[in-house]
Amino acid sequence: MTAPPRGTRDLLPPESARFAALERLAADAFEGAGYLRVVTPVFEATELFVRGVGESTDVVRKEMYTFPDRSGNSLTLRPEGTAPVVRALVTHSLDKRGVPVKLYYSAPMFRYERAQKGRYRQHHQLGIEAIGCDDPALDAEVVEVGWEVLRRAGVGPVTLLLNSMGHLGEECRGSYLPALREFLAGQRDRLDPDCRRRADENPLRVFDCKVPQDQAILAGAPALDAFLCSECREHFAAVRGFLGDAGIPFEVAPRLVRGFDYYTRTTFEYRSGALDWAQNALGGGGRYDGLVERLGGPALGGIGFGLGVERILLAAEAAGGAPQAPRLDCFAIPLGELVAAVRLVRSVRAAGFSADLAYGERSLKAALRHASRLGARYAAIVGAAEREAGAATLRNMDSGEQDQVAIEEVARWLSER
Ligand code: AMP
User: Fold this and answer.
1) CATH code at 398?
2) CA–CA separation, 50 vs 61, rounded Å?
3) Fewer CB within 10 Å, N- or C-terminus of the chain?
4) Phi, psi of 142 (to 5 degrees)
């Protein structure tokens, strides 16, 4: 019991501070675009994900943490963020107060996956959902907000892949699936047994197949774009137009279907140029017209994305742009003058600076070493001489320069630096 379960990690300082900084900058970007925070339970009825994400998806077939509670209800630890948010919208009729309903979340996700660097059994996602509106400008907004978070997070080069999966009617998906089935039937003997099963159960899911030989075969599969109806085609063109206007470069990826059954029309993925192929997806999302209805709500479309926090931090580190943890402003060192030092810390904190104190008696040298380890900007030394002068010695921890500053002036002195 000395290590956390396989595929999970303890998030420790200083990485935890980078995590918190990323969460803050994302919340600023989301709120800046009119999205409000929603917090849903960590576990939900299993049925929600079976119906929402789709029975034959990899997530539902083999990755969910599903368990009966003590009353025999089947519950599942949330593997993805969209179905729970849509469920909450339906539960509380959130659309009654006007659409689009714009929500964001920051939440852990649980998937029983093969654990490796950048792939965990508990990972964290930052996501937004805009529900109740089909406007292509809204699709572009969602893509742009995610792009902006990645830019502010300093992840380095990102490729935006963009596709339209069409709608679920007779045209579009209805005419594409028979063509895909026919192609797969012709390749049946060459496909891996798992991919063959996908072809039989739910042909679109063949594109999630990870076997390289199958991927090579699938590169020759018919693409959806040739089957889009005129409305979906126009919608997609409009989304591309808005993204072009925003100056966001993208690549059209006609076989990008992403792993969940609920996607329709616009789908997208952000890929990092700084990470290895197996873990280079920083996030992705798409439209899910039909999902609200499937989960018992009105016929409302929606679009959203989920960004992978661990991947973003890895990419930012690789690109040298990781969000910086804030430094401690002041570390007070009492040399026998504990009361004065405690008061100093209180007044510095009250002025809005971060401050800490060298608790436990120790030498000046040991306390200064502690201050460096904490990354403090200044040490405030309070000894007998300082107390007599009603002052503290402020030591710049980077340059070693020292100044005597009257105790009641310390906060103002710090604010001038
Ligand atoms: P998804 O919900 O599958 O669309 O994933 C959205 C994003 O979450 C991905 O692009 C990754 O950045 C991240 N992600 C998904 N699964 C994992 C995982 N097992 N470990 C770490 N990050 C993940």
Assistant:
1) 3.40.50.800
2) 9
3) N
4) -60, -45
Looking at ligand 1, which residue's alpha carbon is closest to its atom 20? Answer: 119
Give the 3-state DSSP-derived string for 110-149, with helices as H, strands as E and coil as C: ECCCCCECCECCEEEEEEEEEECCCCHHHHHHHHHHHHHH
Q: Ligand 1 in contact with 63 (CB < 6 A)?
A: no
120 lines ligand 1 (CB under 6 A): yes
**Assessment of whether the complete model's pTM goes beyond 0.90:** yes
Distant-in-sequence contacts of 390-395, Cβ < 8 A, 24+ apart: 392/332, 392/340, 392/341, 392/344, 395/368
Is residue 280 in a domain? Answer: yes
Residues spanned by the domain of 390 = 330-415
Question: Is residue 284 within 6 Å of ligand 1 at its C-beta?
Answer: yes
Q: Is residue 3 part of a domain?
A: no
Q: Under a CB-based contact definition with an 8 Å cutoff, are residues 382 and 344 in contact? A: yes
Whether 400 and 252 map to the same domain: the answer is: no
Query: Of 184, 208, 196, whose CA–CA distance to 257 is shortest?
Result: 208
- Residue 13: per-residue pLDDT: 87
Please give the Cα distance from 411 to 344 (Å, whole number).
Answer: 9
CA geometry: angle at 398 spanning 392 and 399, to 5°?
A: 80
pLDDT for 323 equals: 65
Predicted pLDDT of residue 264: 96
Q: How many structural domains does the chain have? A: 3
Contacts of 37 (CB under 8 A, 6+ apart): 27, 30, 31, 103, 104, 105, 106
Same domain membership, residue 347 and residue 301 = no
User: What is the CA(361)–ligand 1 centre distance, in A?
Assistant: 47
Q: Are residues 282 and 383 in the same domain?
A: no
pLDDT for the residue 279: 84
What's the CA-to-centroid distance between 308 and ligand 1, angstroms? 5
Are residue 210 and residue 280 in the same domain, yes or no? no
Contact between residue 181 and residue 200 where contact means Cβ atoms under 8 Å apart? no
Q: Are residues 178 and 147 in the same domain?
A: no
Q: Is residue 1 part of a domain?
A: no
Q: Residue 131's pLDDT is what?
A: 98
Q: What average pLDDT values come out for the chain (417 residues) when binned by 10 residues?
A: 93 91 97 98 98 96 98 98 98 97 98 94 98 98 98 96 94 93 94 93 92 90 94 98 98 93 97 88 97 98 98 93 80 95 96 96 92 95 93 97 95 93
- Which has the closest alpha carbon to 110: 147, 48, 64? 64
